[in-house]
Write a structure and sequence with these properties.
The protein is built from two helices and seven strands, in the order βββββββαα. The termini are far apart. It has one domain: Beta Barrel (Thrombin, subunit H), CATH 2.40.10.220. It has a six-stranded antiparallel β-barrel with strand order 2-3-4-7-6-5. It is α+β, with helices and mostly antiparallel strands. A hairpin with a 3-residue loop joins strand 3 and strand 4. Helix content is 16%, strand content 38%.
Length: 144
């Protein structure tokens, strides 16, 4: 007889994998965490960053940068849900990477609107259906 683990999904909304470069930044004097966003939803996101011994305060906010699209969302309040070391595929690497998952808190209507737009750009998916969406920029990239 095998043991079966039951995993209960606690997220209210589906997380989408990020298909484009997006950067999460947490600034807290003197500590800055900068990492690549891996997945995102209207409730939160996760990102990979280089391990640091000194972590920023929880009272700080998070910024999202999309360098390719020249977009920036500033001042997202959040709480950290998890932060763990990621196994490295390269056995010779000495770099330690962490994955931090965060949950957004008390977003204004303006921030919600900006976040929804960014999610559509990053994931190329409709938030209601999860289906891919296409716009002129997408089609131009696909035809190259």
């Amino acid at each position: 007889m095998g043991i079966k683990a039951v995993i209960h999904e606690r997220r209210r909304r589906r997380r989408f994998s990020v298909r484009e470069s997006a950067i999460a930044v947490i600034q807290s004097t003197p500590t800055i965490l900068l990492g690549q966003i891996k997945d995102i939803s209207m409730d939160g996101l996760s990102f990979i960053y280089m391990h640091r011994d000194k972590q920023p305060d929880e009272s700080t906010t998070l910024d999202i940068f999309l360098p390719d699209d020249k977009l920036h969302i500033k001042g997202l309040a959040f709480r950290t849900v998890s932060d763990s070391i990621v196994l490295n595929d390269n056995p010779y690497s000495t770099v330690i990477m962490n994955r931090r998952s965060i949950q957004f808190k008390k977003l204004t209507d303006q921030l919600k609107s900006e976040l929804e737009y960014v999610i559509q750009i990053l994931t190329r998916a409709d938030l209601e259906t999860g289906c891919p969406i296409y716009n002129i920029k997408n089609l131009a990239r696909m035809s190259v």
